[in-house]
Amino acid sequence: MKRWLWIVVLAVVAAGGLWLASKRNAPPESPFARAHRETLVSMLTTNGKTEPVEWSPVHAEREGRVLRVVVERGQTVAAGSVLAELDNNDAQSELAAAQARFEQATVELANLRRGGRAAEIAEIEGQLKRFQVEREPAKREVASLERLVTNQAATRFELDAAKDKLAQLDTQIAAQQARRAALVGQGDIPVAEARVRDAQAAVQLAQRRKEQSVIRTPRGGVVYDLAVKSGAWLGAGDLVAKVGDTSKLRITVYIDEPDLGRIRKGLPVEITWQAEPRGAWKGVVDDVPTQVIALGTRQVGEVVTLADNPNHDLPPGANIDALIRTQVVENAITIPKAALRREGGELGVFVLQADKLTWKKVTVGVSSETKAEVQNGVSDGDSVALPSEKPLAAGMTVTPVYP
Description:
By secondary structure, the chain is an alpha+beta fold. It has helices at residues 2-25, 89-113, 118-150, 156-182, 188-211, and strands at 29-34, 36-59, 64-69, 76-77, 82-86, 214-216, 221-226, 233-234, 239-256, 268-273, 276-287, 293-295, 298-308, 319-336, 341-343, 346-353, 356-361, 363-367, 371-376, 383-385, 399-401. Strands 2-9-13-11-10-14 form a 6-stranded antiparallel barrel. The protein has a 4-stranded antiparallel β-sheet with strand order 6-5-3-8, with no helix packed on it. The chain has a 3-stranded mixed β-sheet with strand order 20-1-21, with no helix packed on it.
């Protein structure tokens, strides 16, 4: 019995040794994938930023401190709606002063058109009437004394005194008449009219400055950018808000320079936003770039795409991801892009023939994120080597492992 037991043990040990020997001498394992025919969609992944197709910036027309902001970001407003108000105490004071100057200039012009100020005219008219009343008896006295002097009933001295008094009254009357005529000079009315126009312009300017304290939107839409807060100081021309129609968005995507040749107008685009992973927006390429610019360490072209946003759930200013479908190839022979290698400056793959590796030069057509179309060198069903921990070489015997 013991003898048979030893025979069994020795047999097991011998079989294990043979298995280890065969394992030690077996070709190394290497991962492979099979080429096959399928419809290959070439996709280009990039990033971009959104903005409305139609929008208007709202700027402050005058400087001042923000008294209050009456809207919120994302609020829908109508054309002419108030967005914010500035402190207008200085504008109100300026308007009151301008109105006072206008009223004063208007009264002065009216006085000149009437011939002068009412009080001055009344004073002159009163003096004229008094002198004219006094002149009549003085004139009669001179005539009476002239008859008496002729009849030697009065002296020449009395006649001369009466004449002097009459002449003095005539002089005073003439002086008052000249004074009244001098109340309005030849150019006084045009000058006064100019002062009225200047004062009126100052009122309009002050009124405009007061109106500029209320900042309104020129168009209706969504307030998608609000750049001010209550208490902040605004300079003339500073941005207050951006208002636009967010139902359709212009999305600028950045295409790396080597991929620009794949872009043309009308290509479909799928837009995703990390903040809303449940949604996707459809768009099309609307304009291709005419220049290449630097974007950080990248050289890119800015490609304009248009996307519908009927629910307004993709906000302007969002940083998005874009997937552009650049080409579709039916019945293409595809392999994993990871199988492509460069050997001696040539692009190719290692193809398994029997159990040995054969180097095949290939030409690549359309590619997706993970697969590439091979136009020659590989047939449908061929096994191509994937990256391996061990270096591979043509003629090498391997044991294929398929995922």
